[in-house]
Amino acid sequence: MSEPMQDRLEIRGLTVDFDGFKAVNGVDVTFVAGRLHFLIGPNGAGKTTLVDALTGLVRGTGEAGFRGRDLLSLKSHQIVRLGIGRTFQTATVFEKLSVLQNLDIAAGLHRRSAGLLLARRRVPQRVEEALETIGLTALAHRPAGVLPHGQKQWLEVGMLLVQDAQVMFLDETVAGMSVTERDETGELLRRIGADRTIVVIEHDMEFMRRYADFVTVMHTGKVLAEGTVSEIQADRQVQQVYLGTVTEVAAHG
Amino acid sequence: MTVTAASTPEAAATDAATTAPAGIRRKPLPARLFTTYGGLVAIGVLAYVLMVWAPGSMSPFRLGNLGKYCAFALASMGIGLAWGRGGMLLMGQGVFFGIGGYAMAMHMKLEAAGAGNVPDFMQLYGDGTMPFWWEPFRSGAFTIFAIVAVPAVVSLLLGLAILKRRVKGAYLAILTQALAVAFATLLVATIKETGGFNGLNTFTTFFGHNLYDPEVKKNIYRIAAGLVIVFLVILWQLYRSRYGELLVATRDAEERIRFLGYDPANIKLFAFVVAAVMASIGGALFVPIAGIISPTNVDAAASILLIAGVALGGRASLLGPAIGAIAVGYGRSSLSEKYPDNWSYFQGALFILVMLFLPGGISSLWSKLKSLAGRVR
To answer: What interface predicted TM-score (ipTM) does this complex get?
Structure first.
């Protein structure tokens, strides 16, 4: 394993061009291990597109250096193998398979393909630990499709854990969660984030205030501001385009 | 194996303790045994019916028919793997059925012609010279090798070309269907090399054994039925393996699989190749039993018949495709005996009924009845 200091994802001049429309426009941002990095911005700011470009889902230009490789030149599954994982806005677990099977498949990345033809004999260590961390041990044999929304999202996080993803992009993980679920998610991210790079795309300002170590605000495809929560909240520009309106919405319900 | 070790209660307790110390609740032992070995027991029952009961009590004619259905069943089981578990609707498995069938038929044709001689139809339609690629099929060993290797290589190249380009769903179905049409057309057009529309027929021996000997016929049936059982066991292992889980996961959320670090094309490719080899072996066994292989056995309609068995039996289940293929074959011959002109309407009606009321096939009948009974109560 490389040292924590080396684990940084440096993005320089990232641009995603959809037929002339620049969904992401020359973004420079650095994600560092050990801090909960929130990516916020109004709808259409380019947050998800940025993550899509970094995980090989859409083509981007510029540079995204991680462990000496440029992510923009790799395919999705190669990026994952490099230690970068993501979740999606809608939880996409394998509904027909059990929680345990879901995690086991996610752990498969570290197995040799010949072993695939054998049945699982015992629960792998990594899977067991992940079940414990995400609090789903008791539900290991439950089909993932019947889990409530919050637990599905935790399962997704668990899948990233067994993948041993060093960088995790979580796309609106707490959206639609109850307040308790949200807080449990925050604690979960704190726990696992100590030695990882966790990037959270979020609309929930309350959640951001409580758990963000560092915030990047995006607007119309560009980085508007960066800093700690208090720095961001004090930023005039941010207040104008984003925080003001959203805090009002949040306050009213 | 953990479950065999856990045959006594004490052993079960320690077993559970060693494998799941973090407190993952394991399913109760009977349920675990059932999910793990229930399939094997069902295969055992089918093996008894096919290998012991049928040869002992069926007339040679009926047994021969059953052998043909077993040949179809092998191809259908492969479709069950690719379609039921892998989500790839393969509408052109007749191509691979044909590759195996023609390979076997070429060998038997050369056997019938005798050493150094040329198959009869080549003298009839051509100038009596044999294409060079027929020559190696004089060897029985080469023929068996080709029956496995040719479909494997062809499906691998085809699969790479199709699956890596992310062709799926209806497009994959249409593409494979078109391949079957093209293959049949090619066969019809090459009468001097492949016998054309007539196909290859009039065989006398099967690897040196007289085809008219009832005992030889019975043994060929036994090989076909035996291979159905062997491949059922292989599929059983495949379905319970990690690969089996991965294949289902790919079927249900292919894009998600990519973000777990797998290339879904490779996962599907393996199932595609296995299905092709199974279809080819089925085709190879069809030939000595039916005594003929012709373009009508490999074209689009033949390919769809293979799928009909899979859909009827239950595509995602272990035994469904095999039982469905046998049922479709049986229904076809008994209906065509009674209603030679319009039996295909019955088949169409049955297909529609299954799709409407039992989309999971016959094998879903049990759980369907259970849930119905539950509702009544």
So the answer is: 0.78
